[in-house]
Request: fold
Amino acid sequence: MKRILAIIMVSTLLLSAASAYTDSFRSMTADPLFLSLLDVIKNGGSAEDAEAAYEAYAAQDISAVDRSRSEYHMVRYYKDMGNDEKAMEHLEKEKAAYAGIDSSASDLERRTAEADMVSAEYYITGRMGTGMQSSDLMKQLYKDYPDEFYVAIQEAFRLLYTPPIAGGSYRKALRIVNAIEKDSEGISKLDGYSLLVAKAMALSESDEFDESDEYLDEAVSIYSFDTAIEDIRKDNRRGRW
Reply:
């Protein structure tokens, strides 16, 4: 019996070590110019400042993958600022960057760029077909790369935004974000912020409104401009009634 227990314990430890989260996009999320761009657009900076930071980052010799992902953030920024025309302009740039991804990119990089691109288009248009495509891409990406910080967090958001009848589940989302939270060493500033928002949203769905607000407070101490945060706070206020 002791031998069996020892084998189980060793197997569990090996499984735990094998499932540590990784960040294959670390070079981008540690780039000072990319971080400067995020500081502007995720704190609600002016369009002039956003474009200046964007041009400074884009002027570098960056890969098509990184260019595509930076365009994704610009799409979301302009959509949140209410400028659909500029959001569409950057969506077209994102599509062009995606088309330029060559064989040097990994499967993860190429598919993440595709998932981001379709997600960005859905963010602008709200078309049901595009939304379903975005969900399917992320679901499959998570199936293949469950231990990537970015992928796992986006899968949590997918589960939170998808209606239960279509496979959404705040309980599953909460399990994912709790697992990441316990194994978050090396997480980037951007993914750390997204993790806090996802956790706050999952807690809100679990009727843990006070704890949800605490996570939102921590999130806005990193980046202050996110239209989803006020929506979650409103849900928390309504839930307390």
Remarks:
- The two ends are 54 Å apart (CA to CA).
